[in-house]
């Protein structure tokens, strides 16, 4: 059994503990067992699991795996500490708030011979799986992805990083991209922000990504994809799958721990993750230059 610790008890951390306590039967995650959780607050217990100190988590030999579920600004440091301590790491996206930090972390994982896995539940939703099928084989002429949501608490980083899931959608659907322009409108006093990035596909087709957050904005993604043959103006409407998104991700991570994922898939994932973080970095740079 792979002893596991969950670090950070928020929305994601609680779901991680829940899933570790009741893994999907006959799945790789049955090989994981939760040994405790780490929090900067004194919580004592969570779902019957005991709080342990960070030092204990790093030092205990029966803990081989860490799931880092804290806010984004803490990820880089926590991943580094657990990898240095010889643990495998699963981190909620984004793994870091710069491209160079992410490259360093991958190098460290490789050097230590440990699995580094970045969760991407946005790729596991039923609507995305259908969208990917619907887009396959079509030629994009021009497209827009407009995300809206409520304001984030502090610690989530520049919006191209906290919104990396939207960038990841675009890259998964249309291939590697370049950034043409980017700008950020921010009204701190109103807790409002809007990031607009102009991207180009390898065929120089324009894609617009808008990431907009503010009080009263509900969590939604609007698409407008114009292909040579048709236009898509809404996400496919499909029923939710029975297995939860974080549970699907945990299974993928557990398969990596058990060596069941082909190297070519691991390499492709790592390349996509680094590519998206590089785009996020460039978007941040251009937004700050244009401000
Ligand atoms: N929520 C989701 O659906 C998804 C989240 N993610 C990613 O997961 C990570 C964590 O996100 P999420 O769980 O939503 O963030 P939260 O804001 O819920 O939690 C972040 C951290 O804040 C601390 N915290 C939580 N509640 C409180 C509180 N009441 N008072 C003080 N501190 C608190 C916890 O750390 P501590 O226990 O140390 O105090 C926790 O790990 C992010 O990287 C995000 O991008 C990715 C995909 C989906
Ligand atoms: C209700 C309050 C609520 C909060 C506080 C919330 C937080 C939250 N959801 C996220 C992603 C996500 N959140 C969800 C889905 C959910 N996540 C949920 O907490 C719930 C109830 C669903 C509903 C199914 C998905 C699918 C993602 C992946 C990103 C995406 O698809 O855009 C993220 C990561 C950053 C991001 O991509 O925006 C945060 C911080 N989501 C919420 O819906």
TrEMBL record:
Keyword ATP-binding applies: no
Co-factor requirement: Zn(2+)
Reaction(s) catalysed (UniProt annotation): (4Z,15Z)-bilirubin IXalpha + NADP(+) = biliverdin IXalpha + NADPH + H(+); (4Z,15Z)-bilirubin IXalpha + NAD(+) = biliverdin IXalpha + NADH + H(+)
Top enzyme class: oxidoreductase
E.C. designation(s): 1.3.1.24
Gene Ontology biological-process entries: heme catabolic process
Subunit structure: Monomer.
Function: Reduces the gamma-methene bridge of the open tetrapyrrole, biliverdin IXalpha, to bilirubin with the concomitant oxidation of a NADH or NADPH cofactor. Does not reduce bilirubin IXbeta. Uses the reactants NADH or NADPH depending on the pH; NADH is used at the acidic pH range (6-6.9) and NADPH at the alkaline range (8.5-8.7). NADPH, however, is the probable reactant in biological systems.
UniProt similarity note: Belongs to the Gfo/Idh/MocA family. Biliverdin reductase subfamily.
Name the UniProt record assigns to this protein: Biliverdin reductase A
Organism whose genome encodes this protein: Albula goreensis
């Amino acid at each position: 059994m792979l002893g596991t610790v969950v670090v950070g008890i928020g929305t994601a951390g609680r779901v991680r503990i829940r899933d570790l306590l009741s893994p999907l039967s006959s799945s790789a995650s049955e090989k994981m067992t939760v040994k405790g959780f780490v929090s900067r607050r004194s919580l004592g217990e969570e779902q019957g699991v005991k709080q342990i100190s960070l030092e204990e988590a790093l030092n205990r030999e029966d803990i081989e795996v860490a799931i880092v579920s804290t806010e984004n600004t803490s990820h880089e440091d926590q991943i580094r500490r657990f990898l240095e301590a010889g643990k495998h790491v699963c981190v909620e996206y984004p793994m870091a708030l710069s491209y160079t930090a992410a490259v360093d972390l991958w190098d460290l994982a490789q050097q230590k011979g440990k699995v580094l896995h970045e969760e991407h539940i946005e790729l596991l939703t039923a609507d995305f799986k259908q969208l990917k099928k619907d887009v396959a084989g079509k030629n994009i002429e021009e497209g827009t992805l407009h995300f809206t949501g409520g304001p984030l608490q502090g610690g989530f980083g520049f919006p191209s990083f906290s919104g990396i899931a939207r960038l990841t959608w675009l890259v998964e659907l249309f291939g590697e991209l370049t950034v043409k322009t980017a700008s950020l409108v921010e009204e701190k006093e109103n807790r409002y922000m809007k990031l607009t990035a102009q991207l180009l596909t390898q065929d120089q087709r324009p894609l617009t990504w808008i990431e907009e957050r503010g009080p009263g904005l509900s969590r939604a993604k609007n698409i407008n994809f114009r292909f040579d043959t048709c236009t898509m103006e809404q996400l496919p409407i499909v029923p939710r799958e029975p297995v939860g998104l974080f549970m699907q991700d945990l299974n993928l991570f557990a398969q990596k721990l058990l060596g069941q994922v082909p190297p070519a898939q691991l390499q492709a994932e790592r390349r996509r993750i680094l590519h998206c973080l590089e785009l996020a970095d460039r978007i941040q740079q251009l937004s700050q230059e244009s401000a």
